[in-house]
Fold:
Amino acid sequence: MNTTDKLTKVLEQIDRTDKLREYVDDLEENLPYDSFAEYYLSLEKVKTTGKAELILKSNIDRTYGYQILNGTRKPGRDKIILLCLVAGLTLDETQRGLKIAGEGILYSRKRRDAILIFAFNEKLTIADTQELLIQFGEAVLE
Structure:
């Protein structure tokens, strides 16, 4: 049983609001990262590449990219995916980044997400990923 399943079982047993508050407070205290930027910049692949190169290769506006990485702007789902692709992150690392940011994870039953999962698994470049999305008639990452 994974950690999420265990936590769900604990949550199912809570029957009073004071217990719920205690549970929620514990969750907040145990989150290792406060933001996507904090998580992303902690990864070794990101550290070795550097902010300027990541922003340039992701095709994100330079100012906006720095605001994302400095934590002053909250990135949307596509921007997170672009930054993760350009850094060469794994699917698991990307899913974790999406969760931390409060964005929906890539879901294998959604056509566009399935294509993106394939791109991560095959370690495709952004250009190749965009081309694949176009080829399948899906919206490109923006």
In short: The mean pLDDT is 90. The chain has ten helices and no strands. The two ends are 37 Å apart (CA to CA). Residues 106 and 113 are 5 Å apart (CA to CA).
